[in-house]
Amino acid sequence: MVDPHSDLLSPDQFWGSVSLVAAALTWALYSVLIRNVTRDLSTLAVSFAAFLGRLLVAFPVGLWENSYQTWGNISLTVVAGVFYLGIISTALAAFFWNKAFELLDTGVASLTFFAQPVVGVILGVAFLMKISQRLC
Predict the structure, then answer these.
(1) Distance separating alpha carbons of residues 131 and 136, to the nearest angstrom
(2) Long-range CB contacts for residues 116-124, cutoff 8 Å, separation at least 24
(3) I need a labelling partner for 45 at 20 to 30 A (CA). Which of 15, 20, 36, 56 fits?
(4) pLDDT 10s digits, 46-65
């Protein structure tokens, strides 16, 4: 949350705060546009096109970051975590978000935004418990 009365607008954190505002605005725009686009196209096709668009941006940034970061130990737990983040909490969540805007009114579908932390915690705990049972 950007609070103009706190130190969140200090010079050290200015660009982070601007990024948060930009992310909120672009997410709202994306959600409204999804509603319009899914009237004519399937949700799966729209979700896949959005994935490709994000990949075109994220892949070069990932390559750039890789030149500055070192890789740690890659274990089964790390692979499972990356799988969970990539497939479950990103791809599947984006598809369901898009599907909600296809099926529901925009105002109602936007309320699902507030369920994300609860569902994320439940799925994360369930997934990690399953993985830890297999590792132990």
Answers:
(1) 9
(2) 120/89, 123/88, 123/89, 124/84, 124/89
(3) 20
(4) 999 988 988 899 999 989 99
Do the beta carbons of residue 67 and residue 119 sit within 8 Å?
A: no
Q: How many CB atoms lie within 10 A of CB 125?
A: 10
Query: Does pTM surpass 0.85?
Result: no
Contacts of 21 (CB under 8 A, 6+ apart): 2
Cα 101 to Cα 59: distance, rounded to the nearest angstrom? 27
Closest CA to 28 of 97, 118, 115, 117: 97
- Is the CA virtual torsion 84, 32, 54, 72 positive or negative? negative
Given a contact cutoff of 8 angstroms between Cβ atoms, the answer to whether 13 and 7 are in contact is yes
- Where along the chain do its domains lie? 42-135
